[in-house]
Design brief:
This protein is mainly alpha-helical. Helices cover about 75% and strands about 0% of the residues. A two-stranded antiparallel ribbon has the order 1-2.
Length: about 300
């Protein structure tokens, strides 16, 4: 009887603790949303929605100041999209190699190396990109634009460098989450596929990966979040100029825009930077909601 009472009390306490934690999480999200809307909307009245969101000139300190952030938005969208399109397949194939192809000894070497990538601070990626990748990109830029005298050289600090760094940074997240999901697929599914005459490769792509797609989508969501939220590393390799997002153009992402100018911005300039943060926040919410819906549909199909 005493054990039953004790278990009942413990379960009730645990229930209340979990409920409190859930409420705190919801309140945190709501508070951040309200704060960003409160701080990010005044610039729409000061500058104008069209001039702010669709303007292409960023000159906040000029006598006739301009606050167009269209190129910054396009850079974030394009950079993140290319990063995901290239990085996710590489990460997924690496996860398949670790779980389905490599022997235990080789996997024991590669897996810690991938995990080590996740432990490296962002600024180290930026430093390596600045010292190693940018000079390579500069040489490539000289080759590509050798006959174009009008081209403005960026020293290798461009959109292409930023995308490469982002791809490397999201790989550990995609690989680790995808590998964990693939490992959770019951062995009976693989055995049944092989028993029906499917090859190992057919089993991997027709059975194993579809069975693990919900977990793989989680890795993709986390990878996109890492790509969208990165600032320091990208600020060091992207150049820092507001230009149309072409591969060899010096560019700014939404995150690097905040990092670069929030320290000295005042007045309308500061209001616009909060609007940039609001746009980034809305962008992340939309991406997460879309991927969450895809995950739920994948779970229903399962």
């Amino acid at each position: 009887m005493k054990n039953k009472v004790k278990n009942y009390i413990v379960e009730r306490i645990a229930k209340y603790m979990f409920t409190i934690c859930a409420v705190i999480a919801i309140l945190a999200v709501c508070s951040i949303t309200v704060y960003m809307i409160f701080k990010g909307t005044p610039a729409f009245h000061s500058v104008g929605v069209l001039d702010l969101l669709f303007g292409t000139t960023w000159q906040p300190t000029a006598e006739d100041a301009s606050y167009g952030i269209l190129y910054i938005i396009l850079t974030s969208i394009l950079g993140t999209a290319v990063c995901v399109l290239v990085g996710v397949p590489i990460g997924l194939m690496t996860a398949v190699f670790l779980t389905e192809v490599a022997n235990q000894k080789l996997a024991g070497i590669v897996q810690p190396a991938v995990e080590l990538l996740a432990a490296i601070p962002s600024v180290i990626y930026g430093l390596l990109g600045l010292m190693i990748l940018n000079p390579i990109m500069y040489k490539l830029e000289q080759i590509v634009f050798a006959e174009n005298e009008a081209h403005q050289y960026t020293g290798g600090a461009n959109l292409l460098s930023a995308i490469i760094v982002l791809i490397i940074m999201i790989l550990p997240t995609v690989v680790n989450v995808s590998a964990s999901s693939i490992k959770m697929v019951p062995g009976e599914l693989r055995a049944a596929s092989l028993a029906l005459g499917a090859s190992k490769i057919q089993t991997i792509f027709k059975v194993t990966i579809p069975a693990a797609k919900s977990g793989i989508m989680t890795g993709v969501v986390l990878g996109i979040g890492r790509a969208l939220g990165e600032a320091m590393a990208i600020n060091m390799v992207a150049g820092g100029a507001v230009n149309f997002p072409l591969p060899f153009n010096s560019v700014r992402f939404l995150t690097t825009q905040l990092v670069s100018e929030m320290g000295y911005a005042q007045g309308v300039h500061r209001q616009v930077l909060f609007t940039v943060g609001l746009v980034l926040y809305i962008f992340i919410l939309i991406v997460n909601l879309v991927l969450l819906k895809l995950r739920r549909e994948a779970a229903k199909n399962d």
